[in-house]
Amino acid sequence: MLKVYTLLIVILLGALPLVCKAQNKLPNDCSNAILVCGNGAISSNAIGAGIEEINSLNSCNSYEHNSIWLKIEIVQSGTLGFTLTPTSRNIQVDYDFFIFGPNASCDNLGTSIRCSTTNPNAAGSSSNITGMNETSHEYFEGPGPDGDNFVKNLEVKEGETYFLVIDRPIGNSTFDLEWNGTAMQDGNAFPEGVTANTPNPMIACAIENQAEFDLFSKIDEIRTNKTDNVIFYSSLADANDKINALDQYYKTANSTTIFARVSNPQVECYEIVELDLEVNRGPAVQENVTLTTCDIGNNGEEIFDLNSISSEILNNLNKNDYHLSFHKDSISAINNTNLLAENYTANPTEIYARVTELNDLGCFSISNISLELTPTPIVNDYTLIQCDVDLGNSTDGLTRVNLTEANSFIASSDSSYVFSFFKNQSDFNNNNPIENPERFSNNIPFQQNLLVQILNEKTGCFSTSNLLLQVEPTTASLPEIGPYYSCNISESDEQILGIFNLDKIAESYQNLEVNFYETLENASLEIDALGNEFITSTTSIYARLEIDNQCQGIESVELIVRENPKIQLKDLYNLCLNKSNLQIKAANFSSYEWQKESSGSFISLGSGSSINITETGTYRLMVTNTANGLSCSSEKEFKVEISNIAKIARDPEVKDISNNNIVTIFAEGEGNYEYAIESPENFQDNNVFENVPSGFVTFFIQDKNGCGIIETEVAIIGYDKFFTPNNDGSNDYWRIKGINSKIQAKSDIQIYDRYGVLVARLQPGDEGWDGTSKGKILPEDDYWFKVELENGKIFKGHFSLIR
């Protein structure tokens, strides 16, 4: 059965199989009413009220606004109702209806026996559905807010006829109309008409974006009776209204559904069935493809491999399901004529590919192909002349060569060009290039032909060129030039390095191109050429001589770096105030210049090898050594500061008569001083001495800057812990040290035995106690003493007499 397809008005009759119309006029008037014949869908182009026919013939106080008329013939008695459901559920959309009959005519309708003009929005209804049913008891409702959208259904009898007017005062929504009641049970309340079959869809290939369908080929499939008429329409409304019939051959760009109206002169009713038209646009190919190939020889014409773009054209389609062919123009592609060869020779142009489905339908698609040419690099053949500089044998015509030196002569400089070198055509065909062309060793002496590929990386196109390598023998040993000299850059560097101006050296070669290299191999291969300023220690480099990139010879150049004079002077000298002057003498150099800083600049003092300095300040010595026409200079800056011999600032500080005698010496002066004890050596910066022996000790004070030494004697009072009076000349007397007839001369020394008996009394000038008392030798024992120094200090102690 038909689905609902609507242009302006659609009515779905859920239980109506057939519809028919008596006249070819739109059904917005009674005389053009649509006869309901059976289940199916109806539609019409009717719009507006037509002739106003019900204004005074209804009890619902309404009239036609936008109406459609239906005529109902009853063939089975019972109750009959319907439900009208607008497609738009907007409560503002309002549908009214009116029923006239039974057995009314257009000329004598009488008054409506059922009508509803309730406005669902004004009535507060929950929906805008309306109709007739068996639960309602009223026959009329409305207008506006009155009613609930439904009235009581009809009691119909076989043979009766009725008119149903459906009006749309507000809105123009399509709607469904479903019939119900006992008259619809066990059969149908409406008469039967012709019957038709729903046809299978038609499928046609789109050619130039349109498919053509032979509609008449479907007639026998649709009709069940050879006497039935089948007419095709583009819309359901046209089919119902029987207007705008389609021709036999129907063209469309898109898949669509059309409608076949099946009728018979012997019956009033007709049936409408759908016919689906499916447009097959052909395979989903890539519509625009560009095929680019290299213009070998740059003559504007080349062979294009059309098969190389098959996958791109098919756009991921399975190639086994399609046939691909190439054609000169679009008409040929459509007609499948003028096939092109797969290897097609052409200028830049456009051709077309036809992709055909390998099935019964055989639909195809057309792809536009742009053929484009990319120029290849413009190249020249070249002869590269190289010197045979191998140290082993420089006359055999075999050497190592930097083939890339020929690049700029073979093709113009272009950063996208990549050069590859091949020994022969076979290596080129097998893509076996020379691995290291910068260090190529020729295997054919003197002359060897090579093949060069110049690839443009941006386009993938390449050209080839012939390179003739010509090796010229040289003498067994390289000629030497020089030496050239340079002074050491800096004395502070561990390595002696000089700067050589290679451009200046190159001036000695007239009418030759000269480049210098550190090694013979680099000179031979022309890699890592040296710049103008070359910093090096004493060495030999190599000069490569060329004319127009052709090697003329290689020479060894000796470079010698002369060491700058070394000035052995101190950074600081001291002018002693206790001496008349300071003399400084330098080593042997070719020339001297002594200078002194004055007001921010240096003034010259003399040009001798030595200088006498009488005042402090900043000085500089500049010296030069000249040899082989090269003068190398050095300079040394130094300072002269005042210094002087020391003076004793005050008496030393002495902490004596203890197990650790400590002496502090105090000196002053303009110098920098250091100190020593007992001998003028082993000086120390500290002026404090510990564990100083008792007695009279000499201390030395020296100026570190060489201005001299002074000495001072310090009395350290102390005593021996024991003595041995056995006349062996060693330790025969006990005495108090650090005093004498001049130092603490009035001191009193008393010695007692263990019983407190005074056994001896000594004076500072005495030789000491010999262990006797009144001529009597005292025994070995411990003895005590008491000393009263001249300065009033008193100290006591004890010692041992050992025999």
Blueprint of the fold:
Elements: E1 9-13, E2 19-21, E3 34-36, E4 40-44, E5 67-73, E6 78-86, E7 94-100, E8 114-118, E9 130-133, E10 140-144, E11 150-152, E12 154-156, E13 161-170, E14 175-180, E15 202-207, E16 210-214, H1 219-222, E17 229-233, H2 236-241, E18 249-252, E19 256-263, E20 271-280, E21 288-295, E22 302-305, H3 310-314, E23 322-327, H4 330-335, E24 343-346, E25 349-357, E26 364-375, E27 382-387, E28 400-401, H5 407-410, E29 417-422, H6 425-429, E30 440-441, E31 447-456, E32 461-472, E33 480-487, E34 498-501, H7 502-506, E35 513-517, H8 520-525, E36 533-536, E37 539-547, E38 550-562, E39 572-576, E40 582-585, E41 591-598, E42 601-606, E43 610-613, E44 617-627, E45 630-643, E46 647-655, E47 662-668, E48 673-677, E49 688-689, E50 695-703, E51 709-716, E52 718-719, E53 722-723, E54 736-737, E55 748-752, E56 758-762, E57 772-773, E58 776-777, E59 781-788, E60 794-801
Parallel strand pairs: 1-14, 3-5, 8-10, 9-11, 15-20, 21-26, 27-32, 33-38, 39-45, 53-60
Antiparallel strand pairs: 1-4, 2-3, 5-13, 6-9, 6-12, 6-14, 7-8, 7-13, 15-16, 16-18, 17-19, 19-20, 22-24, 23-25, 25-26, 28-30, 29-31, 31-32, 34-36, 35-37, 37-38, 40-43, 41-42, 41-44, 44-45, 46-47, 47-49, 48-50, 50-51, 52-54, 55-56, 55-59, 57-58, 59-60
